[in-house]
Amino acid sequence: MTKPDLKRRLRAERIQMSERVVREKSLCIYRRLINIPAYRLARCIACYVSIKNEVDTKTVIQNAIGGGKQVGVPVTREDGDMNFQVIEGLSDLRPTHYGLREPVPDPPKVLLPHTIDLFLIPGIAFDRHGHRIGSGGGYYDRFLARTEAVRVGLSYTFQIIDRVPAEPHDVKMDLIITENEVIRI
User: What's the structural domain count of the chain?
Assistant: First the structure.
C-alpha cells in the first residue's frame, strides 16, 4: 500500500470512530501517559490540540496546567514553521485554518526549544521503531530537530503499523502510547 493510500485509510478509520470510543480510548492513553516518569518529571510540556478524532488532548492540557506544569501548544506561522506558545487554559484557543485551534500569537509567550521537557505528538501512523507518518507538512520534524525533549507519540492501537517508510529528516519518537500499551523505543 502506498503512503498516501495508507494515510487515507487510517484517517478514514479514525474519523469513523464514535465520540464515545474516542473519549474512552483517549482516557486510557491519558492514564498511561501520566504514569510514565518523563511526564511526572516534566515541568514544561509541548502538546498538540486534538482535532478530527485524534487522541484527545484536552484532559492532558487541563490537568497538566492544573498540576502546575507549563503547557505550550502549536502556533503555525506563515513561513511554514511553527512555535509552541504557553497557554493558561483551553479558553486561550481560537479557531484558525484547517480546523486547528491556536492561541493568538504572543511572542513573549513562545517557548524556546531547550525549555521543553516533553513533547506530545500526533500522527497518522507509527511503527515500533519510533517512526511516524504525520499530516505531511513537516512542521513537527523541523521543530523536534531543535530540541532534546522526550518525544511521545499519542496513537490508537490501529495506527501502529509494521513499518513506516522513514525519510532522513524524520525525527523518531522515544515512546508511543496507545490505549493498550506503552511502546518504548
Answer: 1
Tell me what percent of the chain is helix, strand and coil, each rounded to the nearest 5. 35, 25, 40
Q: What percent of the chain has a predicted confidence (pLDDT) above 70?
A: 100
pTM of the predicted protein model: 0.94
Looking at the chain, how many residues does it have?
A: 185
DSSP 21-86: HHHHHHHHHHHHHTTSHHHHH-SEEEE----TTSPP-HHHHHHHHHTT-EEEEEEE-TTS-EEEEE
Domain of 31, CATH number, reads 3.40.50.10420
Q: Which residue has the higher pLDDT, 14 or 2?
A: 14
Q: What residues have CB less than 8 Å from 5, skipping those under 6 apart? A: none
- Residue 75 belongs to what domain range? 3-184
Give the chain's end-to-end CA distance (angstroms, integer): 25
DSSP state for residue 109 in the 8-state scheme? G
From its phi and psi, is residue 91 left (phi > 0), alpha (psi between -120 and 50) or beta?
A: alpha
